[in-house]
Amino acid sequence: MTAAPDPGAAFIEARGVTVEFTTRTGHAARALDGVDLAVPHGEVLAIVGESGSGKTTLARTLMGLERPTSGEVLFEGRPLDYSLRGLKSYRSRVQMVLQDAAGSLNPRQTVYESVAEGIRLHGRARTDEQGRTETELVAAALAEAGLRPPERLFLRYPHELSGGQKQRVLIAGALALRPELVLADEPVSSLDASIRGEILALLLELRRELGMGVVVVTHDLGLAWNIADRIAVMYLGRVVECGTTEEVLTAPRHPYTRALLSVVPEIDQLEPVVLRGEVPDPSRIPSGCRFHPRCPALADGTADRAGVADACHHRPLEILPATGEHRAACHLV
Amino acid sequence: MSELLVMRDLHVAYRTGEGRLPAVRGVDLTVHEGEVVGVAGESGCGKSTLVSTVLRLQPKNARVEGEVVVLGEDVRTMRWGDLRALRWAGASIVFQGALHSLNPVHRIGRQIAEPIQVHEPDLPEDAVRRRVDDLLDQVGLSASRSRSYPHQLSGGQKQRVMIAMALACRPKLIVADEPTTALDVMVQAQILDLLRDLVHDLDVGLLIISHDLSVLADVCDRVLVMYAGRVVEAGRADEVFSDPLHPYSAALSGAFPRVGDPAARYAPAGLAGDPPDPRELPQGCSFAPRCPRAVDRCLEAEPPLVEVRPGRPVACIRVGEP
Amino acid sequence: MTATDSPPTAAPLSAAALTRRRRAASLRRNWALFRSHRSGLFGLTLLLLFVLLAVCAPLLVDPDGLDLTKATGTVLQHPTQKYWLGTDDSGRPILTLLIFGSRVSLFVGLFATLISMVIGTVVGLLSGFLEGWGARILFRITEWFLVLPFLPLALILATVLGRGLFNISLVIGITSWPATALLIRSQALSIRERPYLERARVLGAGRWHQITRHALPNVMPMVFANTTLTVAAAILTETTLSFLGLGDPTRVSWGSMLDSAFSVGAITTGAWWYIVPPGVCVVLVVLAFTLVGQALEDVFNPRLRER
């Protein structure tokens, strides 16, 4: 009795998603505090933020690994079905590459078995239209992920692989299911600098060849500049700015985005604004605008002059809508 | 300006069950007072081995040849007593991965006090405590933090503690091994600012190791790029980053694109293959298998480090060729 | 992927063939590692000797020697040419009793361990891996059994169940599974949080798949190493129970020999041949299992090796 998918809806959507955890001390920590996000088909979206921003929690919630405390996740316009069968069918179309590449592979399984796992779980070898066997499907996935010739790696164990190879095996494992979207959590942060480009190029190639959408979670603005169509900047559980990559990174409107950009070492045109302190504890979200204790615009009087300083301290901002325009959650704009 | 650290023709090889593993193959390096020198390189390039020789901390199966002169004395031939005095009071190290370098069951204050107590055992307790509080203040932490345990601190705060520990005995030379890896961008900027200020205020010499060339370009005066145990390029940090002459430096520099540069949109730059296995170094130039500009000549011999411009030694036979 | 490697291999193999190859390769590797432990090899040799002894018992000594009615030797005679280890208080040759006694000790030891490991692994895995009240109940049961004092429990069970070989194995199995369960549980708890389990969930794996395909294989090495040590403990326990008179009265075991020896005052009369041989055998077998177990722990310890 499920309704037909809404053709106008985004592929995956988060509506007012809040995710709360109870800390050891008994306080409620809001990893996500109201997020609206729309992920269309075939697009590369970068979710950018520092630790404590909630970006990983958002990715996991979109994947169904966490259930929102309030709000909902929509898949093709319908609420995500959290039953075992519903999640399984969801995960045959949306996959995720987790953050810890080294730990994500079972050390006792060979590369073959790791990649074949998804194929076996979803019975892909039986239902393959081209009649390919499991071995052929595994080989195809590994080859697509850039590991050629794939047979040579079948019997290798994770500890015999380099960091880049491990990451490719994980991507192959996700690809084997032919998903329409892949969420990648920090896909290159643990890899050597010189091989980052290859993995990122692979993600772009998958989008080009297979029409696969990608959602990249990262703290690296340079990575977003390299491959993302759109960016959502997160701070302390909320999206504070979103828009196309060009808009957000060349003409940022939120003071946090501006500060982040200014400290990226390769930027010369922006005066570095090094924020004081660190991202606050998610169990103690500041009142009003959550960024106000560290906001340079508030500290140097810009907010005062614009007459919004009081609002910054006391009036919380609305959740940014999920649609396309370049927006920032700031009283100054 | 005095030379705090001089490495001359340093070679380090590990003796393992599988044979001889060359980790450092002829490196020259100098750090002066008040200078910040960077060593850029990825896994397997030998930079961690390099760092370990500064205070003779290399593993037992490492064979070191060449000179490592710290504050005027060769560390390799130093007597044990002198070495102990040098360790931490002459030169100190900020280790990679503050996560594992702090003892989880001791308070921060006690861990910072430890080297002080070792080197100045006659110092009374309250003087030690005051010094610890001063150090915490220098690195931007409040004195109350001395009563915290490591797990109560964030990544950035732990790194500051590591820096405070390195400063504890007032060394002249500090070596920082990947000080900002695994830290958030903003925290990274804070730590780099801190290091810059410390060098300026205390007139120490700083040697930073990192795989992130952009970080080094930001904070170092000079930078050396290492690959497979050798220096492949050196020069002023901003120049090496913005105008790399060796193909590997170009790749490292390109891996961190300039945000705002239209040429970098949808064009991630990287190298194929992996950094070479020190057990199986290729013939000729060790970078040739991955080099986009390699030709047959490159496989004949390891290219020598040659100053193609004043102050810019490069180990590539094709510099300047189209 | 890299250009510097050897040319590609022959036609792709089937999944089954790959699994076989992998298993064969890992077996070879483990055996090579085990072989490098001299103590383990020594233990293994000893073990094989005793197993051989137990299996070939009728070929080595005359089974009639066990029969009380056919005992022809002098009572408590010291070792002679005819009776290498002397005789017991009924005139039966000690050597015969010893060799046949090994059967009981080994059988009970192994069977009890089987019971203990099966219950312990299942309970440990489920209570460690699952969440909710089911897991909590299992854990409480484990703790409860752990706290119950062994000897009174064994006495009660032996009395209630009767004194056959099978029942004694059951008694030992029931009193020893909690230790295994606790060990397995803590392993399962740590495995549950590992990233590759999360990846399995992301790929669409249900709990059964997670437990059988990921948790169990990663727990098995510890189970193996623990098994050999459990056998050692089980044999000691059987000896103890038999010594206390709770063993199978119709069978001779090393424990029952010690029991008889003490009850006829073998120490005071100086009949050392009645006490020393069974004691030494128990020690040797337990030692053998322990050495093998320690070597196996080394082989399977995930921290020492990458696997």
If helices are DSSP runs of H or I spanning 4 or more residues, what is the number of helices of chain A?
A: 13
Distance separating the two termini of chain A: 45 Å
Beta-strand residue fraction of chain A: 15-25%
Order of helices and strands of chain C: HHHHHHHHHHHH
Mean pLDDT across all amino acids of chain C: 84
- Counted up, domains of chain C total 1
State the name of the first-level CATH class of the largest domain in chain A.
Answer: Alpha Beta
- Give me the CATH fold name of the largest domain in chain A: Rossmann fold
Chains forming the largest contact: A-B, 42 and 45 residues
Low-confidence stretches of chain C: 1-10
From the 3D coordinates, which CATH architecture of chain C would you assign? Answer: Orthogonal Bundle
What sort of overall outline of chain C do the alpha carbons produce when their principal axes are compared? elongated
| Oligomeric category | heterotrimer
Number of strands of chain C: 0
Show unreliable segments of chain A. none
CATH architectural designation of the largest domain in chain A: 3-Layer(aba) Sandwich
Please report the number of helical segments of chain C: 12
CATH class of chain C: Mainly Alpha
Strand order of the largest sheet of chain A: 6-7-8-3-9-10-11
Q: Rg of chain C, please? A: 24 Å
What's the helix and strand layout?
The complex is a heterotrimer of chains A (333), B (322) and C (307).
Chain A: E1 12-22, E2 28-39, E3 44-48, H1 55-63, E4 70-75, E5 78-79, H2 84-91, E6 94-97, H3 111-121, H4 124-127, H5 134-144, H6 163-175, E7 181-185, H7 193-210, E8 213-218, H8 221-227, E9 230-235, E10 238-244, H9 245-250, H10 255-263, H11 296-299, H12 302-306, H13 309-314, E11 327-328
Parallel strand pairs in A: 3-8, 3-9, 6-7, 7-8
Antiparallel strand pairs in A: 1-2, 1-4, 4-5, 9-10, 10-11
Helix pairs in contact in A: 3-5, 3-6, 5-6
Chain B: E1 3-16, E2 19-32, E3 36-40, H1 47-54, E4 62-70, E5 73-74, H2 80-89, E6 91-94, H3 98-101, H4 108-119, H5 125-138, H6 155-167, E7 173-177, H7 185-202, E8 205-210, H8 213-219, E9 222-227, E10 230-236, H9 237-242, H10 247-255, E11 306-309, E12 312-314
Parallel strand pairs in B: 3-8, 3-9, 6-7, 7-8
Antiparallel strand pairs in B: 1-2, 1-4, 4-5, 9-10, 11-12
Helix pairs in contact in B: 4-5, 4-6, 5-6
Chain C: H1 15-35, H2 38-55, H3 57-60, H4 94-129, H5 133-147, H6 150-161, H7 165-192, H8 195-203, H9 207-243, H10 254-263, H11 266-269, H12 272-300
Helix pairs in contact in C: 2-4, 2-12, 4-5, 4-7, 4-9, 4-12, 5-7, 6-7, 7-9, 8-9, 9-10, 9-12, 10-12
